[in-house]
Every structure is written in C-alpha cells, then in structure tokens.
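FORM 7B - TANDEM STRUCTURE REPORT

SECTION 1: FIRST PROTEIN
SEQUENCE AND TOKENS:
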Amino acid sequence: PYAHAQLMAIVRARLVGCAAFDADAIELCARKVGAVSGDARRALDVCRRAVEIVEHEWRAQPTGQAMPMVTMMDIDRAVKEMQAAPHVAFIRNASAQQKVFLVAMRAAMRKAGVAEVPLGDVAVVHRQLCLMHAMRAPSYEQIGVICAQLGASRCVLAESSILDVRQLVRLAVAEDDITVALKPDPVFSKLATS
C-alpha cells in the first residue's frame, strides 16, 4: 500500500498533460484512498469515476462551454458512490464467517502470489484466523458451504460446483472492496487492513 503522498505522485504522473483536475481534487483522492487501502488502482478508479460524473453532468446541460474541471466535490461523490457499490454493501452485511473467508482468501492469494488458490489453502488460513481472534473455527465442510454461499453472491469464483480442497477459487471482487467494506467494522477492521 502507498501513502497519500506517493498516491498523489502516481496520480499526477498518470494525468500529465491532462488539465481536467483541480490540484486539491487530486490531493483529496490520494488522501481518501491512502486512508483506506493505499491502492494506486483504486485512486485511479476514483479519478476515472469523477471524470465520468463531471462529463455526464456537462452533457446533460449543453451550454457550449468547455467541460469543467474535476473538483473536490466530484472526488467525494465518486468515493461515496464506489463505497456504496452493491458488492461492497453485501460484504459489509455478510456473516462473520463469510467475512473471515474473504480475508483468508485474500491472505492466501497474497502468500501464493497468484489470483487463484486451492480452497484447502484458504480453509487453513480461515481456521487460523478464527483461532487467532477467538472465534469458533468451522470445519472444512462448513468452509466449503461458506465458499458456495459467496460463489452464489458472485463474490468468489470457483473452478467447479463440486467443492473440494484441491479446487481453485478466486475473488470476483477487488481486494480493495474487501478493505473498504470491512474497515468500518470494529471486529474486522484489523483483519481487513492486515
């Protein structure tokens, strides 16, 4: 994860030659994303969404004027809109074990360095996280059911419908969305940012 100053430099480097952003808007974007996840892709997504918002409003009111600059208000609207996405809301309202599974899956993916990991690896991390945080650790079969539930909600993609520890699974949501969804939760905020 990047600090807000690094994110600001990254965003400015990507926007060289583009006069569509107010300098304060870029700083706000970097600070907001830096405070949650520090993900450069998320910062660029926020900027892209802010441009889409400004462009949509500009096209809706044809005045013949040039498209206005993206301001701090536009960045704030883009961030709020992205935090209110349906999959973020689902994760925020998921069961405790589903949240642990998503965090465990992210940890297993980071450890392996690949996007797809065996369900068995996720299950081992899931059980370890539960034990470390004084939660009841589910059985491997129960973890398979949790995976199926998250698959049905389109948060996780599974190789096949037969849940087996060797089956490969991957996230269908951005890792950053897990952080955004769980950060306000006092129980999961530490897990989400680790």
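SECTION 2: SECOND PROTEIN
SEQUENCE AND TOKENS:
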Amino acid sequence: MGSEKSKILVFGGRGYLGKYMVKASVSMGHPTYVYVRPVDHSKLQLHHEFESMGVTVFQGELDEEEKMVAAVKQVDVVISTLAVPQHLEQFKIIHAIKQAPNIKRFVPSEFGNEVDRVSGLPPFQALMENKKRIRRATESAGIPFTYVSANSFAAYFVDFLLRPHQTLQHVSIYGNGDAKVVLNFEEDVAAYTIKASVDPRTCNKVIIYRPPGNIVSQLDLISSWEKKTGTTLQRTHISEQEIIKLSESLPFPENIPVAILHNIFIKGDQMSFELNANDLEASELYPEYKYTSVDKLLDICLVNPPKPKLAAFA
C-alpha cells in the first residue's frame, strides 16, 4: 500500500480539518473522493473547488446507507474528519465499511489526545470516551485501522492564545504556563495522516504526532511572540481551581472547552507519557517531510495570521 496510489474517501471533507485532508490527498497523487451532505449555496464555491482539483464528490446524508456503501465500495481508504458533535455518527461509517471488504484502512476522526493513555475532567472525558467507543467498534468489526493522535491544532491555538490578527496587549495564561503541549500545523496534520493511511507500518496502530519543534509551553509561545513583535504583554494567570469550577458550573457544551484547556495547558496530558520503542511518531516515521514548526508558524502569523476559528462541540 505504501507505494501505490490508493483511492481515498474523506468524510467531513468540507469541515475545518477535512479541507486540509482533501488537499493533502490530492497533492500526493491519490484519487480522492469526499462524501458530503447535499450542497447548499454557502458550500457551492468549495464544491466547485473540489471538482476543479479532480475530487469526486458523493452527496448524501450519513443515514443514507445505500449511498454510503456505494461510495465506500469504490475506494481503498476511508478517513473521517467529522466534527465532535458527529463522532458517534461514525458507527454508520463502520457499518458501511463492514459491507465493503475492499477497504484496506479506516482512520476515524480523532486528531487529538491519545485517548487510551490519558484522562480529563468529566466534560472532556466524555468526549474521549466517545472516541474510544469508535475505536472498540472498529476493532470489533475487524476493520484495518490507523488511530491518529495529532495532539493540538497549532493555527487554532495560536489564534486562541495570541490573537495575531489583533494588536494584543494582554494575554491569559492557564495555570502556571509551564506545561508542555504539542501544537501541530493543520496542513501537517493532514499530510501526516494521508501518509499514515497508506503505510503498512501504521496498520492497526496508533500514530502520535509529536515533532520536536512543536513541543512548547504557553510561556515559550508568549515569549517567542513578544520577541518577534517587539512587545511586552500583560499576563493574567487563570488558576487550575478556576478552570475546574468553570468546567463544573458552565452548561453543556460550554463546559467542554474549559475542560480541554485544563487537560492540555494545565495538566499537560499530551506530554504526560514517554514514547517507547513500540510507539510510532510521525516526524520519525516520515523524516523526509518538512513540517512547519511553531516558530515558523509564528513567523507566518506576523504577515498572514490564520482566520479565527470557532470549534463546535454540540
């Protein structure tokens, strides 16, 4: 599979990560397909963009089983980038794949923490439990898989923490700011995922994205940004106790983001375990790929900062 140009189908191809995934698949020469909801006017431009790239677009709902099975039977690899509110909808994808023995790999929508090795506050733990349910269902169905632990999206969190599209004078720090996190540029997450989806070495394995140049703390990030912009930011620390209280008092789904902030930036779960000889790390597995380091991304933000993005949790 590693040297072949596999046919890749992306679910959620019009979403935040999905668009990167489709472009990465096309750029690597794979015949690329997307399964999307029927196109409305707001998505028409992206629909035309996909078609101009040579992408085959299947239109249908996730509960239209015959359409899904027909699409899945035409490809080798299925990658899901469905958003959090749709994670359990992936049971329908698994059901479709079970009827298509041609599928050589399924990559379910994760792209965050390594859910079998960490834990979080209840609102975030519930999200991770859903991901684990999809893992166990995939394994129970006997579907070849690759689970992707991409840790955190760099452009998203750089925008959230530093607001590079604004003239920032004040910054919030969660906890003491020392916890190490892993911030991977979204284009790189997609590129590594396409590579892993057709790599025999990653079959029925977890691949973790932990490039050395993307391991930083909040304080590292803020200091680098101050040096690059020639500014000194006023800092306010938000304590762990405050975050925990918010996770308990805020209604669903507003309680999820604060629980995620606690896990990533205070607890430091993404770097809470050592990789061993049996672990697969993306930058070691694909040393030829030149990823965008956090430092390089900050340079990009000086001239062309990413557009603000809101995550959907319900």
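SECTION 3: OBSERVATIONS ON SECOND PROTEIN
The first helix runs from residue 16 to 27.
The chain has a mean pLDDT of 95.

SECTION 4: SIGNATURE
Preparer initials: ____
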